[in-house]
Design goal:
Elements lengths: L2 H26 L8 H22 L1 E5 L13 E6 L5 E2 L6 E3 L9 E5 L7 E8 L4 E5 L2 E4 L2 E2 L2 E11 L2 E11 L8 E6 L20 E3 L5 E5 L4 E5 L9 H4 L2 E2 L3 E11 L5 H6 L6
Antiparallel strand pairs: 1-2, 2-17, 3-4, 5-6, 5-17, 6-15, 7-8, 7-14, 8-9, 10-11, 11-12, 13-14, 15-16
Helix pairs in contact: 1-2
Length: about 280
């Protein structure tokens, strides 16, 4: 279900009817006559729909995290806010950029339309900008010749679908953040860096070179595109497998966790209200 389109159409239809009543229909009614229900209800709903539509389209939009691909940063069920104007103002529904403001940076957590199914939203971390060469070998990222240092941070575990997952945890530093831009990743030492059999055919596939033993890959990011990966490195379906994210698929930058209905533990409540790094 395309909720933004439904919200847009409802706002336009109720607004058009409210305007038609003000300009034409009201003049044809007797002074003391009551508005018919098909005028009264749309006129009442229009300001509410407009108040929801405008901020959601141009300021901030809520999203719910559906999978574990961004653990430990984001948990399943997290409700987050996405800054819709971080990378420029876009026309609602069409997602066409009309006012460019800035571009994604290394380490940004972004929501975007999945290139293989644009009706579906994904969330990942930007690791490669246009022109970058992304190399991932033996679970270590190098971007345009610069390694992203990893610092051991113990272990990370969680329960999902009655299965217990345990892996190593690292703090990963984004070098162009001056050392202050750091996030946490989870790595399963048993699994390969990439599963070659899961790599699909995608536009720009010739820009990538995969090791046959799964130990790693390298990809040259084309102009106007981005390379993204999940923080849960071995439990993420990302650019390694389906390619690059076009700039016009970006929805915005994730910046705030505001609730999680699926986890009412004290640890989850400590995360509520925190920023997303």
């Amino acid at each position: 279900m395309n909720f933004p389109l439904i919200l847009f159409l409802a706002t336009v239809l109720t607004g058009a009817l409210a305007l038609a009543d003000r300009l034409f229909l009201a003049k044809s009614r007797a002074p003391a006559a009551r508005e018919p229900w098909w005028v009264e209800y749309p006129k009442s709903f229009f300001p509410v729909l407009l108040i929801v539509f405008l901020p959601r389209s141009f300021v901030a939009e809520p999203f719910k995290i559906p999978s574990s691909s961004m653990r430990p940063t984001l948990d399943v069920g997290d409700f987050i806010l996405v800054n819709k104007f971080a990378y420029g103002l876009r026309l609602p529904i069409l997602e066409q950029k009309i006012v460019p403001l800035s571009d994604p940076q290394h380490g940004d957590v972004v929501v975007f339309r999945y290139p293989l199914n644009p009706s579906q939203d994904f969330i990942k971390r930007v690791v490669g900008l246009p022109g970058d060469t992304v190399v991932y070998r033996k679970k270590q990222l190098t971007v345009s010749g610069v390694p992203w240092p990893q610092q051991p941070a113990g272990t990370y575990s969680y329960l999902e679908s009655l299965r217990f997952e345990a892996m190593d945890q690292f703090g990963e530093v984004v070098p162009d953040g001056g050392g202050a831009k750091q996030h946490t990743i989870a790595v399963d030492p048993v699994l390969p860096a990439v599963s070659p059999g899961q790599v699909r055919t995608f536009a720009g596939r010739d820009n990538c070179d995969y090791n046959s033993d799964g130990s790693g890959f390298s990809c040259k990011v084309p102009a106007g595109h981005y390379f993204v990966m999940g923080d849960n490195r071995d439990r993420s379906d990302d650019s390694r497998y389906w390619g690059f994210v076009p700039d016009d698929h970006l929805r915005g930058r994730a910046f705030f966790i505001w609730f999680n209905w699926e986890d009412i533990s004290s640890l989850a409540f400590k995360r509520i209200g925190s920023g997303i790094r």
